Amino acid sequence: MSLAPATGVTPLGALVWAHFLNDGLANYLPGILPLLAVALHLPLAPIAGLMSVLLFGQMLQPVSGILADRAGGRGFAVWGPVLTTAGVVGVAVTRSYWMLAALFLITGIGNTVFHPQALSITRSATHTRHGVTMSVFLIGGEIGRALGPLAAGWIVATMGLKYIWVMAVPLALTWPWMTRLVPKMTPKKREGRPIQWRRHLKPGVALIVFSGLRALLLYGMSTFLPILWHQRGGSLVEGASLVTTFVGVGVAGTLGAGAVMDRLGKRTVLWGASLATLVLVSFVPLVRGDWLWPLVGILGITAFGSIPVTLLIGQDIFSENPAMGSGVALGLANGVGALLLPLWGFFADHVGISAAMWAGTGMILASLPFIAAMPTHPPVEHS
């Protein structure tokens, strides 16, 4: 793999920037969901369905990972954000629910194309301190995910939905530079070790269930917090800023988890982050007013803290194809969470969005038994 930088910016810096842009464009929807709910006269279940469609394409990340490893190069990592952007730009010219769903699906597929190869390149770019390196890469995405809803909410509130295309300008300006600097991967030979599906079944299922329930919690909070704030009389931009706080402050959890993992191990982070999240989620339905911002900020730290751990666990489980392992840990698991999101929306329609927030505690409790079934060390190779 070529790692020589073309400019003073490191290849890791280019990957972080690409992740920032891609995830900002792929996760802008919560910032405009209250507006869409009013404009399209929709209850919570179909609104959650739009979010689910946006995220559903991530289930294809294992396939994208296999193809990326075989193809090598950097095409998936640099063209994925372009496809993500195309779906966002299309939203500026349509108001049909089903057309919006199709455009969100395109954005989700672009997001799916980008992540596995970018994650694999990131890990290959360093031979030590994988936890910190992965956390730095993830920070770019988390900042993008945090600012995306706020930027979209501000654009729509001040200029209207037809100007959502403005979100694409940073990528258009920097894409040529980014394509030159992102390192190329060496194609993975087909005659390499076959994936041992039977051996990976138990830890793989545990990883998917744990990460899927975490994804459902993250998506539910990102979807329902702006709507909850809007129902309480708050503005569109204020509601979007709750998501920005949740995801943006969560960057500290992503970075801190990598450092703790390198020192104390993966399982320590998984248990600590999960138990802290369980406690904090239980306060979300009870807190009102300005206190909601510090609460969701701290919740973001704990809820996002386990992501770099599960990404590395996925690569360790599927060591024969690390990009596919990233796809399982991030994409397939996130897709499971996305599929379950409309059910949470249906529940919220019947009991109220504030009461429905209590379901988050059940998700965390259900995920805890699966921590023990996930490996915490790379597999030992036998000659």
UniProtKB/TrEMBL annotation:
One Pfam family hit: MFS_1
Localization annotation: Cell membrane
Main location: membrane
Example of a GO cellular component annotation carried by this entry: plasma membrane
UniProt cross-references to PANTHER family, sorted A to Z: FOSMIDOMYCIN RESISTANCE PROTEIN
Keywords, alphabetical: Membrane, Transmembrane, Transmembrane helix, Transport
Membrane protein topology class: Multi-pass membrane protein
Molecular-function GO terms, alphabetical: transmembrane transporter activity
Membrane-spanning parts: 28-56, 76-93, 99-119, 131-157, 163-183, 204-229, 241-261, 268-286, 292-314, 326-347, 353-373
Domain called Major facilitator superfamily (MFS) profile: residue spans: 1-383
Name under which the protein is recorded: MFS transporter
